[in-house]
Amino acid sequence: MSDSVHAAARQGFEKQADAYARGRPDYPPALHAWLQGALGLHAGRAGADVGAGTGKFTPLLCATGAEVIAVEPVDAMRAQIGATQPAVRALPGTADALPLPDASLDAIVCAQAFHWFATPAALDEFARVLRPGGRLGLVWNVRDESVDWVAELTRIVTPHEGDAPRFYKGSWRQAFPHPAFGPLHESVFEYVHEGPPQQVIVDRFLSVSFIAALPPPEQAAVRAQIEALIATHPALRGQAVLQFPYHTVAFVCVRP
Question: Strands 46-50 and 67-71: what pairing?
Answer without folding.
Answer: parallel
